[in-house]
Automatic annotation (TrEMBL):
InterPro entries: LexA/Signal_pep-like_sf (IPR036286), Pept_S26A_signal_pept_1 (IPR000223), Pept_S26A_signal_pept_1_CS (IPR019758), Pept_S26A_signal_pept_1_Lys-AS (IPR019757), Peptidase_S26 (IPR019533). This is Signal peptidase I. NCBIfam families: sigpep_I_bact (TIGR02227). It catalyses: Cleavage of hydrophobic, N-terminal signal or leader sequences from secreted and periplasmic proteins. Its EC number is 3.4.21.89. It comes from Lentibacillus populi. It is found in: Cell membrane; Membrane. The active site is at S40, K81. GO terms for biological process: signal peptide processing. It is a single-pass type II membrane protein. GO terms for cellular component: plasma membrane. GO terms for molecular function: serine-type endopeptidase activity; signal peptidase activity. Keywords: Cell membrane, Hydrolase, Membrane, Protease, Transmembrane, Transmembrane helix.
Amino acid sequence: MAKRKKNEWFDWLKALLIALGLALIVRTFFFAPIVVDGPSMQPTLHNGDQMIVNKFVYNISEPDRFDIVVFHATDKKDFIKRVIGLPGEHVAVKDEVLYIDGEPVDEPFLEEQKENLEPQEVLTDDFRLEDLPGNDTTIPDGYVLVLGDNRDNSTDSRILGLISEDQIVGKTSLVYWPFDRFRLLKE
C-alpha cells in the first residue's frame, strides 16, 4: 500500500514537471502574452489590451507590410508597432499619403482617423526615409521601418530609426483581453 502511494505521488510529480517543462518551452520559443502599454497603436489597440505574440512565425517567414510586431526597443522595454517598410524599399509620407518606392499605398487601418481630421490637423507629418536616423536611401537587408497607428503620439522609426529583424520578438494578431475586445486583427 505504501509503495503504491509513493508511485502515485511520483507519477503526479513527473506529470507536473513535464507539463511545466512544456509550458516553458511553448512560452520561450513559440507564444507569449503581451500587454499593450500606451496609446501609440490606437485606435487599433488600446492601452491594457492583452495579446498573444507568435514568436515562431519569423523563423519560417519574413515580416510583411502591415504586420503588427513586438520588438525590443531597449534592453528593458518592448514596443508594439506596425511594419510599414521592408528591406530594399524607399518610404515617404507626404500629405497623409504613404509612398513606397514612389507609389501610393493605402493604409486601411488609418481611414477612420483620416476622415475625422479637422481641416488644419495632421495625422502623419511628412517625412522621407532619408530624414530618419541613419539617413538611409533604402531600407537595408535585415531591417524594417515601423510606425504606430496613432502617428501623432508614437515613438517609432521616425525617432528610433530602422528596426533590425533581430530585435523583433514576433507577430501579434490576437487580442484576448478584455473579453469585449477579443478579436483577430486584420490589416
